[in-house]
Structures are given as C-alpha cells and as structure tokens.
Please model this.
Amino acid sequence: MHDMIGSHFCGAAGQGRARRGDIDIGGSLHKLMSLMEIMSGNVGTNATCQLNEHRFSTTMFEKCVHFYVLQLHESFLVWIGTVPHELTNLSVAINSKFEKNTASTTTLLGDMADLSANSIAQRLAKKTGKQVFVSCNLPAVGEFLPLVEARLMTELKNHPDKF
Model:
C-alpha cells in the first residue's frame, strides 16, 4: 500500500512486474535498459531477463515529482523527475570491494557539474549494497533535493523488495 503521509499519487503512477518488451517507459529509458544489462553482465547468459518496476509520486512545492524504480539483477535504476520521459542526466554508483561504506560514482550522461544524481546514487549504493543508476531531472530549486532524497529513503525503508 502507498504511504499517504505527505504525498499522494500524481497522474498515472503505479507499480507492477514486467518483462523488457512489456514496459512503456519512453525511448531513452528503453535504450538505457539495454546498456544496463550489458553493464550488469546479464547479456549472453541463459538467465531469464525479468525486470521489476515500481512507481510512486508526491507533490513538492506545488509540482508533481514522479519516481520510477527499475529493478535489475543486483542493480537498479531510479528515475526522478517532474516531466515524464525526460532523461537529461545519468549517474552510477557502486560500492568498493576494498573500503567499507565507500561508493564510487560517475556521471554517464549530462552536466558533470550537476552532482544531484551522483549524491543520490552514492547514498543508495551504500544503503543497498547494489550498483545504482540514478537520473534526477528536477527544477533547480535548492530545497527539492533533500525532500526528494527523504521521500526516496522512506520508500526504500517501506518497500526494500522494490529496489
């Protein structure tokens, strides 16, 4: 059940299980899924490709903020934005095998000076122990990021099986 405290569904948000061909997530994210499969090592194996998705949204500063989580094998993608199907940046974080509580991040797509996706990816990688891809497509409002991170961490706490 969706946590209704301080948030509600904006538009068509939902959750479900889907296979790669069943998800309508826009052209950019569909191409990204193929790249992520390659990076996670699932290409060329006989393993069944099953992707799980989880969607939720909330209102912040009179704007509807959408969250989309695409769960892969030992990794996941989090897309955050106010405009559906907009992919302006992408960061990835992975935990270090040698140093505990350390996650390395890099920007794969977008402005290298915008560290919002890196910050979220790093926190999620440390918390989950998984490789995390994050696309954060939000207006340049300074108060947005802490609220978005708090909402995302609440969802992770309430639904850890979705990440």
Helices lie at 27-40, 116-128, 144-158.
